Amino acid sequence: MTPHPRLPLQAVLFDMDGTLVDTERLWWEAVERVAGRALAVADEPHVLGRPVEYTAHWLAEATGTSAAGLADALHHEFADRVRTGIVPRPGALALLDALAREDIPTALVTASPRAVADTVLEALGASRFAVSVTADDTDHTKPAPDPYLAACRALGVDPARCVAVEDTQTGVSSAEAAGCTVLAVPSLAPIEAAPGRTVLDSLEGVTPRRLRALLPYRLRVMTWNLWYGGTKVREHRAKQLKIITETEVDVVGLQETYGSAAEELAGALGWHHHRAGENLGVISRHPITARFGDPDVGFYGAAGVRIEVGDHEVDIWTAHLDYTPYGPYESAFDGLGADELIAHEEVRLAQMRDTLRRIDDACDASVPVVLVGDFNSPSHLDRPDVEWPVTKAAEEAGLRDSYREAHPDPVRDPGHTWSPVHDEHEDGSGRPEPQDRIDFVLHRGLRVLDSRTYVSGRPRPWPDVEDNDWPSDHAAVITTFSLGS
Protein backbone atom coordinates (compact mmCIF):
# COMPACT_ATOMS: atom_id res chain seq x y z
CA MET A 1 0.00 0.00 0.00
CA THR A 2 1.23 3.51 -0.81
CA PRO A 3 2.19 5.56 2.26
CA HIS A 4 -0.21 8.33 3.10
CA PRO A 5 0.88 11.74 1.78
CA ARG A 6 1.32 14.99 3.58
CA LEU A 7 -1.58 16.70 5.29
CA PRO A 8 -4.07 18.13 2.78
CA LEU A 9 -3.82 21.82 1.93
CA GLN A 10 -7.02 23.40 3.24
CA ALA A 11 -6.22 27.09 2.73
CA VAL A 12 -3.48 29.60 1.98
CA LEU A 13 -3.23 32.65 4.22
CA PHE A 14 -1.49 35.71 2.81
CA ASP A 15 0.06 38.64 4.56
CA MET A 16 -0.55 41.83 2.63
CA ASP A 17 2.18 44.43 3.00
CA GLY A 18 5.36 43.32 1.28
CA THR A 19 3.94 39.88 0.48
CA LEU A 20 1.14 40.41 -2.02
CA VAL A 21 1.74 44.06 -2.75
CA ASP A 22 4.83 46.20 -2.52
CA THR A 23 3.63 48.35 0.35
CA GLU A 24 6.55 47.79 2.71
CA ARG A 25 8.42 50.44 0.76
CA LEU A 26 5.38 52.75 0.92
CA TRP A 27 5.04 52.16 4.66
CA TRP A 28 8.75 52.80 5.17
CA GLU A 29 8.43 56.09 3.28
CA ALA A 30 5.34 57.05 5.28
CA VAL A 31 7.13 56.44 8.58
CA GLU A 32 10.14 58.43 7.39
CA ARG A 33 7.85 61.32 6.43
CA VAL A 34 6.10 61.35 9.81
CA ALA A 35 9.36 60.83 11.73
CA GLY A 36 11.02 63.63 9.81
CA ARG A 37 14.18 61.60 9.26
CA ALA A 38 15.62 58.75 7.25
CA LEU A 39 15.19 55.33 8.86
CA ALA A 40 18.07 52.94 9.47
CA VAL A 41 18.47 49.17 9.73
CA ALA A 42 18.19 49.46 13.51
CA ASP A 43 14.66 50.82 13.08
CA GLU A 44 13.36 47.77 11.19
CA PRO A 45 12.03 45.85 14.25
CA HIS A 46 9.85 48.84 15.13
CA VAL A 47 8.54 49.41 11.61
CA LEU A 48 8.33 46.27 9.50
CA GLY A 49 5.33 44.04 10.07
CA ARG A 50 4.12 46.21 12.94
CA PRO A 51 0.64 47.72 13.33
CA VAL A 52 0.31 51.48 13.00
CA GLU A 53 -0.29 51.94 16.72
CA TYR A 54 2.94 50.14 17.65
CA THR A 55 5.06 52.30 15.36
CA ALA A 56 3.22 55.43 16.52
CA HIS A 57 4.04 54.65 20.17
CA TRP A 58 7.66 53.99 19.23
CA LEU A 59 7.88 57.36 17.49
CA ALA A 60 6.10 59.05 20.40
CA GLU A 61 8.70 57.77 22.86
CA ALA A 62 11.47 59.13 20.66
CA THR A 63 9.89 62.49 19.88
CA GLY A 64 7.63 63.28 22.82
CA THR A 65 4.75 63.77 20.38
CA SER A 66 1.23 62.41 20.95
CA ALA A 67 0.97 58.77 19.87
CA ALA A 68 -2.62 59.28 18.73
CA GLY A 69 -1.62 62.18 16.51
CA LEU A 70 1.27 60.22 15.07
CA ALA A 71 -1.02 57.27 14.35
CA ASP A 72 -3.42 59.53 12.44
CA ALA A 73 -0.53 60.98 10.46
CA LEU A 74 0.83 57.50 9.65
CA HIS A 75 -2.61 56.34 8.49
CA HIS A 76 -2.94 59.38 6.24
CA GLU A 77 0.54 59.20 4.73
CA PHE A 78 0.37 55.46 4.11
CA ALA A 79 -3.16 55.48 2.64
CA ASP A 80 -2.22 58.25 0.20
CA ARG A 81 0.77 56.26 -1.01
CA VAL A 82 -1.25 53.03 -1.34
CA ARG A 83 -3.88 54.71 -3.53
CA THR A 84 -1.30 55.98 -5.98
CA GLY A 85 1.61 53.58 -5.75
CA ILE A 86 0.38 50.03 -5.11
CA VAL A 87 2.31 47.38 -7.07
CA PRO A 88 1.63 43.60 -6.82
CA ARG A 89 4.67 41.58 -5.82
CA PRO A 90 6.15 39.31 -8.52
CA GLY A 91 4.18 36.07 -8.83
CA ALA A 92 1.46 37.11 -6.37
CA LEU A 93 -1.45 37.46 -8.78
CA ALA A 94 -0.48 34.32 -10.70
CA LEU A 95 -0.47 32.30 -7.47
CA LEU A 96 -3.83 33.71 -6.38
CA ASP A 97 -5.31 32.81 -9.77
CA ALA A 98 -3.87 29.28 -9.61
CA LEU A 99 -5.32 28.74 -6.13
CA ALA A 100 -8.71 29.96 -7.33
CA ARG A 101 -8.65 27.50 -10.24
CA GLU A 102 -8.11 24.65 -7.77
CA ASP A 103 -10.78 25.96 -5.37
CA ILE A 104 -8.27 26.40 -2.54
CA PRO A 105 -9.60 29.10 -0.17
CA THR A 106 -7.43 32.12 0.57
CA ALA A 107 -7.43 34.73 3.31
CA LEU A 108 -5.77 38.11 3.70
CA VAL A 109 -4.18 38.45 7.15
CA THR A 110 -2.62 41.83 7.79
CA ALA A 111 -1.46 44.05 10.64
CA SER A 112 -2.69 47.07 8.67
CA PRO A 113 -5.96 48.75 9.66
CA ARG A 114 -9.19 47.90 7.86
CA ALA A 115 -9.23 51.15 5.87
CA VAL A 116 -5.84 50.41 4.32
CA ALA A 117 -6.62 46.73 3.76
CA ASP A 118 -9.85 47.57 1.97
CA THR A 119 -7.96 49.92 -0.34
CA VAL A 120 -5.56 47.12 -1.24
CA LEU A 121 -8.39 44.61 -1.60
CA GLU A 122 -10.13 46.92 -4.03
CA ALA A 123 -6.96 47.12 -6.11
CA LEU A 124 -6.30 43.36 -6.06
CA GLY A 125 -9.93 42.28 -6.29
CA ALA A 126 -11.69 41.56 -3.02
CA SER A 127 -13.31 38.46 -4.53
CA ARG A 128 -9.91 36.77 -4.57
CA PHE A 129 -10.16 36.27 -0.79
CA ALA A 130 -12.79 34.39 1.17
CA VAL A 131 -11.77 36.13 4.41
CA SER A 132 -9.78 39.18 5.45
CA VAL A 133 -8.45 39.85 8.95
CA THR A 134 -6.96 43.23 9.84
CA ALA A 135 -5.49 44.93 12.90
CA ASP A 136 -9.01 46.12 13.73
CA ASP A 137 -10.44 42.61 13.90
CA THR A 138 -8.54 40.98 16.79
CA ASP A 139 -7.54 42.05 20.29
CA HIS A 140 -3.91 41.25 19.55
CA THR A 141 -2.23 41.53 16.19
CA LYS A 142 1.06 40.15 14.86
CA PRO A 143 3.36 38.73 16.25
CA ALA A 144 0.57 37.18 18.36
CA PRO A 145 -1.16 34.21 16.69
CA ASP A 146 -4.61 35.81 16.94
CA PRO A 147 -4.93 37.09 13.34
CA TYR A 148 -4.08 33.73 11.79
CA LEU A 149 -6.24 31.83 14.25
CA ALA A 150 -9.13 34.18 13.46
CA ALA A 151 -8.69 33.59 9.72
CA CYS A 152 -8.66 29.81 10.21
CA ARG A 153 -11.80 29.95 12.34
CA ALA A 154 -13.57 32.04 9.72
CA LEU A 155 -12.57 29.60 6.98
CA GLY A 156 -13.34 26.55 9.12
CA VAL A 157 -9.88 25.07 8.59
CA ASP A 158 -7.10 23.59 10.73
CA PRO A 159 -3.98 25.80 10.97
CA ALA A 160 -1.83 22.66 10.66
CA ARG A 161 -3.28 22.17 7.18
CA CYS A 162 -2.63 25.73 6.02
CA VAL A 163 0.32 27.56 4.51
CA ALA A 164 0.88 31.16 5.57
CA VAL A 165 2.82 33.40 3.20
CA GLU A 166 4.76 36.14 4.98
CA ASP A 167 7.56 38.61 4.35
CA THR A 168 8.67 39.70 7.86
CA GLN A 169 9.87 37.94 10.98
CA THR A 170 6.99 39.47 12.91
CA GLY A 171 4.47 37.90 10.55
CA VAL A 172 6.35 34.60 10.49
CA SER A 173 6.24 34.47 14.29
CA SER A 174 2.49 35.08 14.24
CA ALA A 175 1.78 32.34 11.70
CA GLU A 176 4.06 29.81 13.37
CA ALA A 177 2.53 30.50 16.78
CA ALA A 178 -0.86 29.72 15.23
CA GLY A 179 0.45 26.37 13.98
CA CYS A 180 0.72 27.14 10.27
CA THR A 181 3.43 26.04 7.89
CA VAL A 182 5.18 29.16 6.62
CA LEU A 183 6.47 30.24 3.24
CA ALA A 184 8.61 33.33 3.83
CA VAL A 185 9.34 35.71 0.97
CA PRO A 186 11.43 38.46 2.61
CA SER A 187 10.88 41.95 1.28
CA LEU A 188 13.33 44.18 3.16
CA ALA A 189 14.86 42.26 6.06
CA PRO A 190 16.25 38.70 5.76
CA ILE A 191 14.46 35.71 7.32
CA GLU A 192 16.22 32.48 8.25
CA ALA A 193 14.89 29.09 7.17
CA ALA A 194 13.75 26.83 10.02
CA PRO A 195 11.73 23.64 10.60
CA GLY A 196 8.26 24.25 9.21
CA ARG A 197 9.48 27.35 7.38
CA THR A 198 10.64 27.67 3.78
CA VAL A 199 12.31 30.84 2.49
CA LEU A 200 12.17 31.87 -1.18
CA ASP A 201 13.28 34.99 -2.99
CA SER A 202 9.84 35.61 -4.51
CA LEU A 203 6.48 34.05 -5.33
CA GLU A 204 7.37 33.70 -8.99
CA GLY A 205 6.92 30.10 -10.04
CA VAL A 206 5.20 29.09 -6.78
CA THR A 207 2.25 26.80 -7.50
CA PRO A 208 -0.41 25.08 -5.39
CA ARG A 209 1.57 21.87 -5.84
CA ARG A 210 4.65 23.56 -4.38
CA LEU A 211 2.61 24.77 -1.41
CA ARG A 212 1.21 21.29 -0.79
CA ALA A 213 4.76 19.95 -0.66
CA LEU A 214 5.53 22.29 2.25
CA LEU A 215 2.96 20.74 4.57
CA PRO A 216 3.95 18.15 7.18
CA TYR A 217 3.33 14.45 6.80
CA ARG A 218 0.44 12.81 8.57
CA LEU A 219 1.36 9.87 10.79
CA ARG A 220 -1.54 7.94 12.35
CA VAL A 221 -0.49 5.48 15.05
CA MET A 222 -2.61 2.81 16.73
CA THR A 223 -1.97 0.74 19.83
CA TRP A 224 -3.91 -2.50 19.91
CA ASN A 225 -3.95 -5.44 22.28
CA LEU A 226 -5.22 -8.21 20.01
CA TRP A 227 -6.39 -10.45 22.90
CA TYR A 228 -4.67 -13.76 22.23
CA GLY A 229 -4.21 -12.71 18.64
CA GLY A 230 -7.96 -12.17 18.27
CA THR A 231 -8.73 -15.88 18.54
CA LYS A 232 -11.66 -15.41 20.91
CA VAL A 233 -13.68 -14.04 17.96
CA ARG A 234 -14.67 -15.79 14.73
CA GLU A 235 -12.94 -14.59 11.54
CA HIS A 236 -10.72 -12.45 13.71
CA ARG A 237 -8.01 -11.86 11.11
CA ALA A 238 -10.45 -10.56 8.49
CA LYS A 239 -12.02 -8.30 11.10
CA GLN A 240 -8.62 -6.98 12.18
CA LEU A 241 -7.71 -6.18 8.57
CA LYS A 242 -11.02 -4.40 8.04
CA ILE A 243 -10.46 -2.25 11.13
CA ILE A 244 -6.91 -1.31 10.15
CA THR A 245 -8.04 -0.40 6.65
CA GLU A 246 -11.09 1.60 7.71
CA THR A 247 -9.23 3.61 10.35
CA GLU A 248 -6.52 4.54 7.81
CA VAL A 249 -3.75 4.05 10.35
CA ASP A 250 -0.13 4.07 9.23
CA VAL A 251 1.52 2.14 12.06
CA VAL A 252 0.13 -0.32 14.61
CA GLY A 253 1.93 -1.32 17.79
CA LEU A 254 0.60 -4.77 18.70
CA GLN A 255 0.40 -6.70 21.95
CA GLU A 256 -0.80 -10.28 22.46
CA THR A 257 0.00 -11.16 18.87
CA TYR A 258 -0.22 -14.88 19.63
CA GLY A 259 2.85 -15.54 17.53
CA SER A 260 2.16 -14.81 13.88
CA ALA A 261 -0.33 -11.92 13.87
CA ALA A 262 2.20 -9.25 12.85
CA GLU A 263 3.45 -11.27 9.87
CA GLU A 264 -0.03 -12.24 8.72
CA LEU A 265 -1.51 -8.76 9.02
CA ALA A 266 1.45 -7.10 7.31
CA GLY A 267 1.46 -9.69 4.55
CA ALA A 268 -2.23 -9.18 3.81
CA LEU A 269 -1.84 -5.39 3.82
CA GLY A 270 1.40 -5.30 1.85
CA TRP A 271 3.06 -3.60 4.83
CA HIS A 272 6.35 -3.95 6.67
CA HIS A 273 6.54 -5.70 10.04
CA HIS A 274 8.67 -6.57 13.04
CA ARG A 275 7.88 -9.59 15.20
CA ALA A 276 9.36 -9.71 18.69
CA GLY A 277 8.85 -12.95 20.54
CA GLU A 278 5.39 -14.49 20.73
CA ASN A 279 3.54 -11.44 21.98
CA LEU A 280 4.76 -8.18 20.44
CA GLY A 281 4.92 -6.72 16.96
CA VAL A 282 4.84 -3.56 14.89
CA ILE A 283 3.30 -3.28 11.44
CA SER A 284 3.85 -0.22 9.25
CA ARG A 285 2.86 1.00 5.83
CA HIS A 286 6.14 2.97 5.91
CA PRO A 287 9.49 1.19 5.45
CA ILE A 288 11.17 -0.18 8.58
CA THR A 289 14.87 0.72 8.56
CA ALA A 290 15.95 -0.63 11.97
CA ARG A 291 14.71 -2.98 14.68
CA PHE A 292 15.33 -2.54 18.41
CA GLY A 293 15.06 -4.60 21.55
CA ASP A 294 15.29 -8.31 22.25
CA PRO A 295 13.88 -10.22 19.25
CA ASP A 296 12.98 -13.06 21.61
CA VAL A 297 11.34 -10.88 24.25
CA GLY A 298 8.94 -12.71 26.55
CA PHE A 299 5.22 -12.19 27.02
CA TYR A 300 5.93 -8.89 28.77
CA GLY A 301 8.48 -6.36 27.56
CA ALA A 302 9.05 -3.95 24.69
CA ALA A 303 10.22 -3.89 21.08
CA GLY A 304 10.83 -1.07 18.64
CA VAL A 305 11.45 -0.11 15.04
CA ARG A 306 12.62 2.92 13.13
CA ILE A 307 10.40 3.84 10.20
CA GLU A 308 11.04 6.15 7.27
CA VAL A 309 8.26 8.64 6.50
CA GLY A 310 9.23 10.59 3.41
CA ASP A 311 12.51 12.26 4.35
CA HIS A 312 11.90 11.83 8.08
CA GLU A 313 12.46 9.03 10.59
CA VAL A 314 10.42 8.04 13.64
CA ASP A 315 11.08 5.41 16.30
CA ILE A 316 7.98 3.37 17.18
CA TRP A 317 7.98 1.17 20.30
CA THR A 318 5.33 -1.21 21.57
CA ALA A 319 5.20 -2.42 25.17
CA HIS A 320 3.16 -4.88 27.20
CA LEU A 321 3.51 -4.68 30.98
CA ASP A 322 2.54 -7.29 33.59
CA TYR A 323 -1.10 -7.28 34.64
CA THR A 324 -0.73 -8.49 38.24
CA PRO A 325 -1.34 -7.14 40.75
CA TYR A 326 -3.90 -4.97 38.97
CA GLY A 327 -4.28 -1.58 40.63
CA PRO A 328 -7.91 -0.83 39.70
CA TYR A 329 -8.99 -4.15 41.28
CA GLU A 330 -7.01 -3.44 44.43
CA SER A 331 -8.54 0.01 44.61
CA ALA A 332 -12.15 -0.94 43.83
CA PHE A 333 -12.38 -4.37 45.46
CA ASP A 334 -9.76 -4.33 48.21
CA GLY A 335 -9.91 -0.67 49.21
CA LEU A 336 -6.15 -0.15 49.12
CA GLY A 337 -4.91 3.39 49.63
CA ALA A 338 -2.62 5.41 47.40
CA ASP A 339 0.64 4.40 49.09
CA GLU A 340 -0.09 0.68 48.81
CA LEU A 341 -1.29 0.99 45.23
CA ILE A 342 1.90 2.79 44.25
CA ALA A 343 4.05 0.23 46.07
CA HIS A 344 2.34 -2.60 44.19
CA GLU A 345 3.32 -1.04 40.84
CA GLU A 346 6.97 -1.98 41.35
CA VAL A 347 7.00 -4.77 38.73
CA ARG A 348 5.40 -2.65 36.03
CA LEU A 349 7.53 0.33 37.01
CA ALA A 350 10.68 -1.76 36.57
CA GLN A 351 9.42 -2.92 33.17
CA MET A 352 8.69 0.67 32.13
CA ARG A 353 12.13 1.83 33.26
CA ASP A 354 13.71 -0.98 31.27
CA THR A 355 11.66 0.08 28.23
CA LEU A 356 12.73 3.71 28.65
CA ARG A 357 16.36 2.64 28.94
CA ARG A 358 16.09 0.65 25.71
CA ILE A 359 14.48 3.61 23.97
CA ASP A 360 17.29 5.91 25.09
CA ASP A 361 19.95 3.39 24.04
CA ALA A 362 18.48 3.19 20.54
CA CYS A 363 17.40 6.76 20.01
CA ASP A 364 18.92 9.51 17.95
CA ALA A 365 18.27 12.94 19.45
CA SER A 366 16.91 14.18 16.12
CA VAL A 367 14.42 11.32 15.72
CA PRO A 368 10.95 11.58 17.31
CA VAL A 369 9.79 8.68 19.47
CA VAL A 370 6.38 7.06 19.90
CA LEU A 371 5.79 4.52 22.67
CA VAL A 372 2.49 2.65 22.57
CA GLY A 373 1.19 -0.22 24.59
CA ASP A 374 -0.95 -1.95 27.13
CA PHE A 375 0.58 -0.77 30.40
CA ASN A 376 -2.01 -2.49 32.63
CA SER A 377 -1.88 0.60 34.82
CA PRO A 378 -3.99 3.75 35.05
CA SER A 379 -2.49 7.16 34.36
CA HIS A 380 -1.44 9.71 36.95
CA LEU A 381 -3.13 12.26 34.66
CA ASP A 382 -6.52 10.58 35.16
CA ARG A 383 -6.60 9.90 38.89
CA PRO A 384 -5.30 12.82 40.94
CA ASP A 385 -5.66 10.81 44.15
CA VAL A 386 -2.94 8.36 43.06
CA GLU A 387 0.39 9.27 41.43
CA TRP A 388 0.47 6.10 39.32
CA PRO A 389 4.22 5.70 38.80
CA VAL A 390 4.34 3.89 35.44
CA THR A 391 2.98 6.75 33.35
CA LYS A 392 4.74 9.23 35.63
CA ALA A 393 8.09 7.63 34.79
CA ALA A 394 7.35 7.94 31.07
CA GLU A 395 6.42 11.59 31.51
CA GLU A 396 9.63 12.27 33.43
CA ALA A 397 11.51 10.75 30.48
CA GLY A 398 9.98 13.39 28.22
CA LEU A 399 7.16 11.31 26.74
CA ARG A 400 3.80 13.06 26.44
CA ASP A 401 0.40 11.39 26.61
CA SER A 402 -1.17 12.10 23.21
CA TYR A 403 -4.72 11.30 24.31
CA ARG A 404 -4.52 13.71 27.23
CA GLU A 405 -3.00 16.38 25.00
CA ALA A 406 -6.07 16.13 22.79
CA HIS A 407 -8.50 15.61 25.70
CA PRO A 408 -7.11 17.28 28.83
CA ASP A 409 -10.24 16.79 30.98
CA PRO A 410 -10.33 13.20 32.32
CA VAL A 411 -13.84 13.66 33.70
CA ARG A 412 -15.35 14.75 30.41
CA ASP A 413 -13.19 12.41 28.29
CA PRO A 414 -12.12 9.43 30.40
CA GLY A 415 -10.84 7.51 27.36
CA HIS A 416 -11.38 4.09 28.93
CA THR A 417 -9.75 1.24 27.06
CA TRP A 418 -10.52 -1.53 29.56
CA SER A 419 -12.86 -3.02 28.76
CA PRO A 420 -15.42 -2.91 25.95
CA VAL A 421 -16.50 -6.51 26.66
CA HIS A 422 -16.30 -6.69 30.45
CA ASP A 423 -19.18 -4.92 32.20
CA GLU A 424 -19.05 -7.24 35.20
CA HIS A 425 -16.09 -8.79 36.94
CA GLU A 426 -15.26 -12.30 35.73
CA ASP A 427 -15.54 -13.91 39.17
CA GLY A 428 -19.33 -14.21 38.84
CA SER A 429 -19.99 -11.92 41.80
CA GLY A 430 -21.90 -9.43 39.66
CA ARG A 431 -19.58 -6.63 40.74
CA PRO A 432 -19.06 -3.95 38.07
CA GLU A 433 -15.75 -4.26 36.26
CA PRO A 434 -13.58 -1.17 36.94
CA GLN A 435 -13.27 0.79 33.71
CA ASP A 436 -9.93 2.48 33.13
CA ARG A 437 -7.54 3.91 30.57
CA ILE A 438 -4.63 1.48 30.50
CA ASP A 439 -3.59 1.63 26.81
CA PHE A 440 -1.50 4.56 25.65
CA VAL A 441 0.12 6.36 22.74
CA LEU A 442 2.97 8.42 24.16
CA HIS A 443 5.36 10.54 22.12
CA ARG A 444 8.35 12.83 22.13
CA GLY A 445 9.01 15.34 19.36
CA LEU A 446 5.74 15.24 17.41
CA ARG A 447 2.63 17.39 17.21
CA VAL A 448 -0.72 15.84 18.11
CA LEU A 449 -3.53 16.61 15.68
CA ASP A 450 -6.10 14.23 17.13
CA SER A 451 -6.38 11.24 19.45
CA ARG A 452 -9.27 8.91 20.17
CA THR A 453 -10.20 5.52 21.49
CA TYR A 454 -11.69 3.14 18.98
CA VAL A 455 -14.04 0.16 19.09
CA SER A 456 -15.99 -1.05 16.05
CA GLY A 457 -19.60 -2.13 16.26
CA ARG A 458 -21.37 -2.80 19.56
CA PRO A 459 -19.44 -5.61 21.24
CA ARG A 460 -21.45 -8.10 23.25
CA PRO A 461 -20.10 -8.73 26.74
CA TRP A 462 -18.05 -11.71 27.79
CA PRO A 463 -18.51 -14.63 27.36
CA ASP A 464 -20.77 -14.11 24.30
CA VAL A 465 -18.05 -12.49 22.20
CA GLU A 466 -17.36 -14.92 19.37
CA ASP A 467 -19.52 -13.04 16.84
CA ASN A 468 -18.39 -9.54 17.82
CA ASP A 469 -17.15 -7.21 15.10
CA TRP A 470 -14.52 -6.00 17.57
CA PRO A 471 -12.04 -8.86 18.11
CA SER A 472 -10.43 -7.64 21.35
CA ASP A 473 -11.14 -7.07 25.02
CA HIS A 474 -9.31 -3.70 24.89
CA ALA A 475 -10.26 -0.55 23.01
CA ALA A 476 -7.57 0.69 20.66
CA VAL A 477 -6.09 4.18 20.87
CA ILE A 478 -5.45 6.03 17.60
CA THR A 479 -3.42 9.24 17.50
CA THR A 480 -2.79 11.36 14.42
CA PHE A 481 0.49 13.28 14.44
CA SER A 482 2.01 15.80 12.08
CA LEU A 483 5.61 15.14 11.19
CA GLY A 484 8.13 17.56 9.75
CA SER A 485 7.34 19.92 6.92
Automatic annotation (TrEMBL):
UniProt cross-references to InterPro entries, sorted A to Z: Endo/exonu/phosph_ase_sf, Endo/exonuclease/phosphatase, HAD-like_sf, HAD-SF_hydro_IA, HAD_sf, PGP-like_dom2
Pfam assignment, any one: Exo_endo_phos
Chain intervals for the UniProt region annotation (Disordered): 397-436
Signal sequence coordinates: none
Keywords annotated in UniProt: Hydrolase
Domain Endonuclease/exonuclease/phosphatase: 222-474
CDD domains reported for this sequence: HAD_BPGM-like (cd07505)
Superkingdom of origin: Bacteria
Gene Ontology molecular function terms on file: hydrolase activity
Hydrolase listed as a keyword: yes
Full protein name: Hydrolase
Source organism (scientific name): Streptomyces regalis
Lineage: Bacteria, Bacillati, Actinomycetota, Actinomycetes, Kitasatosporales
